[in-house]
């Protein structure tokens, strides 16, 4: 049940049955365990309306560089597809590639593994920077997520089962059954590898049973390269009622970060797990005690200078959160018209001048809540808007990941019809061209 979308109209227009609808909202919030979130939403809304976030410059700061908008015009997509490029500003353009990546993961040897929009069941590999692909393995169901370890061991999640391949994707065997067939781990955020090659995986999925969520908040660990796995209900015993958003190791903070959803939306850190063989259930420190302090982050990326998180508050107020040590956290609010769009993904790219952070925000609840592809060249202190879009007609996703920052970055652009059905998918690779093509009118 999506409370945010069901009652979002209450925030935008009067309703003659407002008392009844507010009562229905309160009942629904209680049933799905979102009372804490609702109180936080109201608190952040009041702070924003009173402009209190302006005190101390607590809004995300955007540069003055020009950006492209596809909010009200779909013609640009067809024009740029024909031209083969989307040029944003001087030195920055996206070149169309013939491979329609849905997910791609770059291994340490430079190979790109992933699946395609056109062939969601097939694991493919590219060795020529996405000019062509070779099909390695065909699964019976769509690939939900994938991960490649430092030793180039492949992990692919299909219909609640994690499969492992040690021969470059030629053969797979099941190594982990998640708790339901619809479960998976979030691509680029839900699986990680520690310096000692311990693997951690957080289970994600949403199943509503009429009066409550099925609890999928399990974390799995493997100390033998993914051959065997140990399950932990650590989060469930802490009162988490739904699933795991993020489990990521940070070399910058020398810690593992873990975030959960949906009723508490907390963030945890663990340094003992990195430095000692203490077992998964020890060493965890809760960073946010109360919901209004923000947590439950959906995405994370890091540079050598900072770790950056993106919040998951659909229809509420969203934040970019930055830390340099994993102890002190700077929370910056996304300003309107992007404020109600969760930060769906964050990726680090190794550019010519250093590490870049790329982020996508997305909301399809209202045309008033704009979505954004943006990047930061100073470890998240300031951001440059790249493409602004309307989530009701388009979706832009970061579809590439890697163990270490790569100079490649891929985005997919999906166009929807009036019923929000997917119509087309285009994939582009970021290029830094000193003489980019002119942006079409």
Q: What is the straight-line distance between the termini?
A: 41 Å
Give the amount of beta strand, in percent. 35-45%
User: What integer value in Å does the Rg equal?
Assistant: 21 Å
Q: What value does the average pLDDT take?
A: 87
Largest sheet, strands/sense/barrel: 5 strands, mixed
Quickly count the helices. 6
Strand ordering within the main sheet:
1-27-26-25-24
Sheet/helix structural class = mainly beta
Query: How many DSSP E strands?
Result: 31
Sum up the overall morphology in one term: globular
Which ranges are low-confidence, i.e. pLDDT below 50, for 5 or more consecutive residues?
1-5, 72-82, 434-441
Helix content: 10-25%
Describe the protein.
The chain is mainly β and 441 residues long. The protein has a domain at 1-54. Helix content is 12%, strand content 37%. The protein has a five-stranded mixed sheet with strand order 1-27-26-25-24, with no helix packed on it. Strands 2-3-31-30-28 form a five-stranded antiparallel sheet. The model is unreliable at 1-5, 72-82 and 434-441 (pLDDT under 50).
Give me a quick take on this structure.
The chain is mainly beta and 441 residues long. Helix content is 12%, strand content 37%.
Keywords:
five-stranded antiparallel β-sheet; 31 strands; disordered N terminus; disordered C terminus
Could you give the topology of this structure?
Blueprint: H1 3-7, H2 18-32, H3 35-49, E1 68-69, H4 75-83, E2 85-89, E3 92-96, E4 101-106, E5 112-116, E6 122-126, E7 134-138, E8 143-148, E9 154-158, E10 161-165, E11 173-177, E12 191-193, E13 199-202, E14 219-222, E15 230-232, H5 234-237, E16 243-250, E17 255-261, E18 267-270, H6 272-275, E19 284-286, E20 299-302, E21 307-310, E22 319-323, E23 330-333, E24 343-351, E25 354-361, E26 371-376, E27 384-389, E28 394-398, E29 400-402, E30 410-416, E31 422-431
Parallel strand pairs: 1-27, 4-29
Antiparallel strand pairs: 2-3, 3-31, 4-5, 5-6, 6-7, 8-9, 9-10, 10-11, 12-13, 13-14, 14-15, 16-17, 17-18, 18-19, 20-21, 21-22, 22-23, 24-25, 25-26, 26-27, 28-30, 30-31
